[in-house]
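Example for tutorial group B:
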């Protein structure tokens, strides 16, 4: 199995507020779609509920501790471990939220991060701090939209 992680983070590892992303850039949404298409996407319940619907063209794996939780267009599992076991040999992208990122970060060989050169003082959710020296960093693309610079960066475990 290939296990990767994808997220958009601010300068202070900000991820979200109000159960939504802080920044919405068309280029980032395209990168997310292109990178995850055809793979399984693993997420927590709150992340799934923040989406308009299950992500098309991808196997949606949702983790919820509620045994009665149902997610239209997705498969629900009691733990990330159970979701990964069900994925078998499929490529899996961890897409959030913060607790799922924290739980699975050390198992991921690749981190696709959109590093946004901006901050959000009232962010509610943060990406976990990780040891960047354990990875090779490669900038895939750089952008500036409405005065905000951001880059798609791939961290591969050394």
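The residue assignment follows.
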């Amino acid at each position: 199995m290939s296990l990767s992680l994808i997220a958009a983070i601010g300068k202070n590892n900000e991820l979200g507020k109000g159960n939504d992303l802080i920044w919405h850039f068309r280029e980032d949404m395209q990168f997310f779609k292109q990178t995850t298409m055809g793979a399984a996407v693993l997420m927590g319940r709150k992340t799934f509920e923040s989406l308009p619907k299950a992500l098309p063209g991808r196997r949606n794996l949702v983790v919820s501790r509620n045994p009665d939780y149902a997610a239209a267009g997705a498969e629900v599992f009691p733990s990330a471990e159970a979701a990964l076991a069900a994925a078998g040999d499929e490529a899996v992208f961890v897409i959030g939220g913060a607790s799922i990122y924290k739980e699975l970060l050390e198992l991921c060989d690749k981190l696709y991060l959109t590093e946004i050169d901006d901050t959000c003082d009232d962010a509610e959710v943060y990406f976990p701090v990780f040891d960047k020296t354990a990875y090779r960093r490669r900038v895939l693309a750089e952008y500036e939209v409405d005065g905000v610079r951001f880059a798609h960066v791939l961290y591969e475990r050394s």
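The first helix runs from residue 26 to 36. Compare this with the pattern of hydrophobic and polar residues in the output above.
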